[in-house]
């Protein structure tokens, strides 16, 4: 919190830096329709911050067809990811707002370390598409974790990669699961978007540039 010496910011990706949530929704919706499973934006909100495998299980809560083998579930996840990546391939640097770019640059100038803490295995692909790779000192993503949010692993690893104590890190998140993960890591949780209405967030912000009020 302000007053304690904070050294780093760890950012979630989807729904915080870029709005890929609409692509996740479109790709899961296509899959759910194929399985004749009801899926809407409210169910999609439950997938925020949750791994691909856990997301599939949430979608299948309403599935009533024949039993699905592990192999079939893997195929379904691949199918979803292929549709999702086709949508991601359309992304350009214009998909990151100047507000986000400028705030990241200002935080860096002030001496803060910046890391990514995303459950996504597509995180690096997205950062390359939108030209944000250079903005981060470390990247912790779905490829270096075994437990997804609300488990703190992705953020703990991000702090480790930066060489900074969890107590000195802010986490910026749009997902309830991400706020829970940040708290479990002993970090200060900043809620934006959906998570700005979550009571467990230590700080709630209405827009990205409000982060400058913390420093
Ligand atoms: C998170 C998203 O960032 O990444 C989740 O909020 C998503 O909705 C998760 O399920 C995993 O993403 P991917 O790209 O590895 O399927
Ligand atoms: Mg998110």
Tell me the series of helices and strands, N- to C-terminal.
EHHHHHEHEHEHEE
Identify low-pLDDT runs: none
Distance between the termini: 10 Å
Determine the structural class based on helices, strands and strand pairing. Answer: alpha/beta
Report on this structure.
It is a single chain. With 215 residues, the chain is an alpha/beta fold. The protein is 39% helix and 11% strand. A six-stranded parallel beta sheet has the order 3-2-1-4-5-6. Helix 1 crosses helix 4. The relative contact order is 0.18. The model has no long low-confidence stretch (mean pLDDT 96).
Gist of the model:
It is built from 8 helices and 6 strands, in the order βαααααβαβαβαββ.
Topology overview:
Blueprint: E1 8-11, H1 21-34, H2 41-45, H3 52-59, H4 70-88, H5 98-109, E2 113-117, H6 123-129, E3 138-140, H7 153-162, E4 169-173, H8 176-184, E5 188-191, E6 203-204
Parallel strand pairs: 1-2, 1-4, 2-3, 4-5, 5-6
Helix pairs in contact: 1-4
The protein binds 6-O-phosphono-beta-D-glucopyranose and magnesium ion (MG).
Please give a handful of descriptors for the protein shown.
215 residues; alpha/beta; six-stranded parallel beta sheet; 8 helices; binds 6-O-phosphono-beta-D-glucopyranose; binds magnesium ion
């Amino acid at each position: 919190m302000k007053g304690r010496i904070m050294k780093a910011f760890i950012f979630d990706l989807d729904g915080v830096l870029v709005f890929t949530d609409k692509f996740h929704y479109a790709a899961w919706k296509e899959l759910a329709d194929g399985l004749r499973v009801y899926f809407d934006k409210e169910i999609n909100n439950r997938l925020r911050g949750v791994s691909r495998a856990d997301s599939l299980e949430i979608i299948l809560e309403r599935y009533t067809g024949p039993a699905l083998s592990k192999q079939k579930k893997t195929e379904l996840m691949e199918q979803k990811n292929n549709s999702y990546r086709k949508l991601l391939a359309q992304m350009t640097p214009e998909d990151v707002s100047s507000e986000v770019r400028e705030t990241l640059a200002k935080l860096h100038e002030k001496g803060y370390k910046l890391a990514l803490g995303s459950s996504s295995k597509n995180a690096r692909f997205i950062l390359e598409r939108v030209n944000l790779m250079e903005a981060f000192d470390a990247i912790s993503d779905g490829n270096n974790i075994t437990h997804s949010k609300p488990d703190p692993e992705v953020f703990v690893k991000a702090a480790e990669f930066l060489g900074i104590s969890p107590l000195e890190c802010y986490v910026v998140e749009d997902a309830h699961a991400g706020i829970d993960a940040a708290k479990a890591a002993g970090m200060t949780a900043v809620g934006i978007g959906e998570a700005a209405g979550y009571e467990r967030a230590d700080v709630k912000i209405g827009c990205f540039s409000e982060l400058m009020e913390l420093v």
